[in-house]
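Example 3.2
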Amino acid sequence: MHFQWYPGHMTKARRMMQENIKLIDLIIELVDARIPFSSRNPDIDEMGKNKARLILLNKADLAEDALNDEWIDFFRKKGYSAVKVNSKKGGGIKSIQSVIQEACKEKTERDRKRGILNRPVRAMVVGIPNVGKSTFINALAGKACAKTGNKPGVTRGKQWIRLNKNVELLDTPGILWPKFEDQAVGLKLAFIGSIKDEILQTEELAAELVKFLNSEYQGVLEEKYGLDNVQDAYAALREIAENRHCLVRGSELDTEKASSILLEDFRSGKLGRITLEKPETERQDRVE
């Protein structure tokens, strides 16, 4: 599969972020805990040089907990603050305010030496589409102050949100980067729903997910869908269609619908806690 998606509004969003970067003290980058490497936009590192950094492993409840901890350790060794959160259910949110202050300790100390007291930390919240930025902001603020949706591209403009006298947040639209050098990154982003499904070939994507699960999470598909033989990815999709009564024109198997069911079950955590990449097996040049 070949992935390429960089609509015009992303160019505009990237420009807006570049213009606002000088106003902020801290970049809060949300990544998807299932793909902490592939869901990091390399442009953020370029734009955010010399800024304090906090990486949040969001949707941590959908990923393997032991691997969440490995990724947190990995990012901390790179010099970032890092925390795992579950914005939807509020997991880890209470600790964020103190983590923000800790990440900006040097800035606060510089301000104090210059006689600037009680200036709020200004943080930019960034991340790829559908990673949960708005849900995180709403959970942190305790009210619905940012639009939320489970489709990429809900947040189009910037908005400042005052959390309290200590912290102000700048919400930004989710942006991908102009080109995926590694198509495996595009594949993982498609698995979690950060690329619009309308431009993807659902069956091909689902077949790739079957192959991954066969390799790394044996038994998951058999248990969830009652499959007998999952070694052939397309045969597995036909079997899911049969077992879930996905039919077209009376008796023909609807593998397109079966593929959508599989992808949705994965994205919502119905297949269990699954992590698609591990720190030691990913190329680390983007986080050096």
